Amino acid sequence: MELGFQVLAHLIFCGVELCEHLDSQLLELYCKLGCVEVSSKLFEKMSERNVLSWTSMMDMYYGLGDYKEAVTLYYVMIDEGIRPDHFVFPKVFKACSELKDYRAGKDVYDYIYDYMSCIGFEGNASVKRSFLQTFANCGRTDIARPVTPDQVTWNSVIAGYVQNGQLIETFKYLKELSDAEDYIPNVVSWTALITGYEKNGYSSEALHLLRSMLIKRVRPNSITISSVISACLLLNMAKRSMAIV
Which residues does UniProt call coiled coil (predicted)? Predict the structure, then answer.
């Protein structure tokens, strides 16, 4: 198999013409293998690059940790008039998130709402979750607030506030949500809050939230339980410290 890949790579570097369908298949193969040099050469010589070709290249660079190159490819793709699909946006948002590049993430966000809303991209759950997580990681959860509310956006915004230690903002947002008739906190919402309090040193408050969660008959998951155990350990350590003093 390795010899076969070497022969194919040699043909590519020698400039042997391949049909478009074979080009795309080979590009996807070498991108998945992380062969940057061969993939780049094949990509450059392709007579026609479709959205799948661009996606393969972005996936490769993202998988290799070269997030900047993945974002750069997105910009070049847009400049060449290739319209992204719902597989492209989450990957680009994740790359922006890894770079903590708020401006690039905002560019992608604006593109979706300016050019893609007519075909329903702003309602795609995967896309919404991705840009909310990106802005949260950049400390700009507020930018994503205007989107149409649903369980995905509620949980993502809550998780974003908690991730950035914005506990006051979290409660303000929950107060707003309490007025929404269709808002019902689920295990993701509760766990985000409990974990946030535990991570920020508010162990007692985290346990109070667990009690409220159980009263509402929401079953904890493994992440909830892990945070509760950590909170209990911290409280126990604090009590021991007080006893020593």
Answer: none
